[in-house]
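We include the entry.

. . .
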Amino acid sequence: MKKATLAVMLVVVMLGLVAVAYAEEDWHGGIHKRVKQAKERIEHGIKDRSLTEQEAKRLHKEFDRVIDEINRMKADGKLTPHEKERINHDLDKLDNDISKLKHNDEHRDRH
């Protein structure tokens, strides 16, 4: 009986560890990667002057808002499926805004 109880407890602990690892992987492998890529795209746009100063400020403000939202949602230690969906929607919008602004016809100082 003790062996069976111990085996069940071990399985429960292992499943808990797998769930925690999966949640961390989603943050580190999915959302975190998208956040990093968005930041790099904005910085690259500044560097190659495909973004004006005003456009860069606007995108940094939007980026900071997304980061603040992610931090609020992660405050309880987990992201629900609804929270992940909302974050991904916000990151999609940010990605679209970066693309639009980098490829519009705004005059850039190209000295």
Remarks:
- Residues 19-23 have pLDDT under 50 and may be disordered.
- Residues 65 and 90 are 9 Å apart (CA to CA).
- DSSP finds three helices and no strands in the chain.
- Residues 26-102 form one domain.
